[in-house]
């Protein structure tokens, strides 16, 4: 049954790749990325080993929050193509063995959505109750405001109808009222629509906010938010047994776990590991593996078929909000020394390579961590080639620049005049003349080749994705060692957070001198002593993945 199980629960060893159609590849020469361009570039994703593409919002939008402000949940923004182009893309992806998921952004709509336009036209509108209104906003001021540079309240006064509406994010994004059964039905309809067109699930935007019912007046009508999430999941599974919900829940572990549901895992299939990600940056800043080791040891195991989704960088600011103030300050000092590199007082608006001063060995170590730690790795486009950011771009846009396919002004993103691009191509040291797919494809020493190899090894060694996981004692503060065991097989991985070479001793329970360790990322064999001890050397920022094999076998 093992084979069937591993393919049925495909998300457990998936490689997810997040991209924005708008900035990936322009197929019609108008300067804006589109589905046709993306379809042309699908071979790159296949070669890389991606198994699931996560599309950032591509729905019609005034684009005041990079498409997270939607005016029609059932369409494709005309700048990006048509529904026909979308279907051709999904079909091509599936042909290459890749599933497609997309952002489901139903905490709010754009204020230009016809539902909201109607809702604010009169208190008697049929859509009035699709949003959350109050005569007086609760007196909690800016508490809970997500974008403190732009907003100072969660409530906005609507002159015409004389009430305030709730907006968890920007004021141009009024929150939908999930307490309203009509809204809940509509959300299911949206999911059903896209699944019918081939999607294998959704990345669910801002889950805790979407389920939040505080601030709503008639508490008796409110469903239990977790019952509602479980309802959505069972609807999804009825329509498509392999479909997943990957949720954005940026909370401490204990508060995240309920979003998986109970022992049967009947809510989200996967949650992003925001805590582990932030502790990894702290470990990098300190050159000390312990903060990450502690987080991984404390991290609960998701119920049933659930899984963590792990990542190094996403499309937003690199949030550090789960660290203590002092820890965050340490990361800021190490990786965001200039105020312009920081955002909202809680995060960084940089990509990883500039943050690490372009140190290729250190970067390679970080991606080796991503693919060897338990959880489903999620890449943000451009990470595979080590793209940098545009510090001149506004806020979070800094990391949302055009994909760099080849050297030259347009980066191979588009043949149009760059002034027509949705964002400026990165300039300077991380620009396309220095960082591009074309330059790295055939270079065995490139980051792209490294990540391709990591993905291959991660897919070949099921222990990493499926196994039981333990952190091993190395006696060294700078080295993280972990062991994954699955159906009799074992893989051990070591990562050195320091720039100095080190030698560590490990005890591998269950093994003796009739076994030796084979390197999975390179050549080499290490002996195991009769008592299970092995001495392993690592370069500065080195990493090794090792499999015990019977000696002489
Ligand atoms: C999520 C998205 C972010 C967006 C926000 C509002 O946090 O990741 O990009 O701005 O939701 O939709």
Short structural summary:
By secondary structure, the protein is α/β, with parallel strands linked by helices.
Strand and helix layout:
Blueprint: H1 2-8, E1 16-19, H2 21-24, H3 35-40, H4 42-48, E2 52-55, H5 83-95, E3 99-104, H6 114-119, E4 133-134, E5 155-158, E6 163-166, H7 181-196, E7 201-204, H8 207-211, H9 225-239, E8 244-247, H10 253-256, E9 270-272, H11 274-286, H12 290-298, E10 307-311, E11 318-319, H13 325-335, E12 342-343, E13 347-348, H14 352-355, H15 360-372, E14 376-380, H16 437-441, H17 447-460, H18 462-466, E15 468-472, E16 479-486, E17 489-496, E18 502-507, E19 515-519, E20 525-527, E21 533-538, E22 543-550
Parallel strand pairs: 1-2, 1-14, 2-3, 3-7, 7-8, 8-9, 9-10, 10-14
Antiparallel strand pairs: 4-6, 5-6, 11-13, 12-13, 15-16, 16-17, 17-22, 18-21, 19-20, 19-22
This protein binds alpha-D-glucopyranose (GLC).
Alpha-D-glucopyranose binds at residues 65, 68, 105, 169, 205-206, 248, 316.
Provide structural commentary.
The chain has helices at residues 2-8, 21-24, 35-40, 42-48, 83-95, 114-119, 181-196, 207-211, 225-239, 253-256, 274-286, 290-298, 325-335, 352-355, 360-372, 437-441, 447-460, 462-466, and strands at residues 16-19, 52-55, 99-104, 133-134, 155-158, 163-166, 201-204, 244-247, 270-272, 307-311, 318-319, 342-343, 347-348, 376-380, 468-472, 479-486, 489-496, 502-507, 515-519, 525-527, 533-538, 543-550. α15 runs parallel beside α17. The model has no long low-confidence stretch (mean pLDDT 95). The radius of gyration is 24 Å and the shape is globular. It is built from 18 helices and 22 strands. The chain folds into three domains: 6-105 and 182-458, Alpha-Beta Barrel (TIM Barrel), CATH 3.20.20; 114-166, Oligo-1,6-glucosidase, Domain 2 (Oligo-1,6-glucosidase, domain 2, Alpha-Beta Complex); 463-550, Sandwich (Immunoglobulin-like), CATH 2.60.40.1180. Helices cover 28% and strands 18% of the residues. The protein is α/β, with parallel strands linked by helices and 553 residues long. The longest helix is centred in the middle third of the chain and has 16 residues, at 181-196. The strands form five sheets. The protein has an eight-stranded parallel barrel. Strands 15-16-17-22-19-20 form a six-stranded antiparallel β-sheet. The protein has a three-stranded antiparallel β-sheet with strand order 4-6-5, with no helix packed on it. The protein binds alpha-D-glucopyranose (GLC). Alpha-D-glucopyranose is lined by residues 65, 68, 105, 169, 205-206, 248, 316.
